[in-house]
């Protein structure tokens, strides 16, 4: 069954924290988790010909913004104090 695997893959990035000073390593780890999640949880898309309302693009934007928030939440507090 895919649902438990999707749940695990959705939870992992949300609980992932930066380990060490390297932001790039944390970003790579995050990208890997998101890619693995996307293998199992396919985004729905319009199959009725021409979609004029751009709903698919809006859904993708919401998902991408959620990834950004997950990434920022996982960064060490030291990252923000350096800004």
Secondary-structure topology with pairs:
Layout (H helix, E strand, L loop, with lengths): L1 H14 L7 H18 L14 H20 L2 H5 L2
Helix pairs in contact: 1-2
Radius of gyration: 16 Å
Helical percent range? 55-70%
Taking pLDDT < 50 over at least 5 consecutive residues as the criterion, the unreliable ranges are none
Q: How many domains comprise the coordinates?
A: 1
The termini sit apart by 44 Å
* Global mean pLDDT: 82
Give the SSE string: HHHH
The total count of strands amounts to: 0
Shape: globular
Distinct helical segment count: 4
Strand content: under 5%
Give the biggest beta sheet.
none
- The SS-based structural class is mainly alpha
Short synopsis of the structure:
Helices cover 69% and strands 0% of the residues. By secondary structure, it is mainly α.
Overview of this protein structure:
It is a single chain. The protein has 83 residues and is mainly alpha-helical. It has one domain (2-81). Helices cover 69% and strands 0% of the residues. It has 4 helices and no strands. It has helices at residues 2-15, 23-40, 55-74, 77-81. Helix 1 (2-15) runs antiparallel to helix 2. The longest helix has 20 residues, at 55-74. The chain is globular, with a radius of gyration of 16 Å. It starts with a helix and ends with a helix.
Keyphrases for this structure?
about 80 residues; mainly alpha; 4 helices
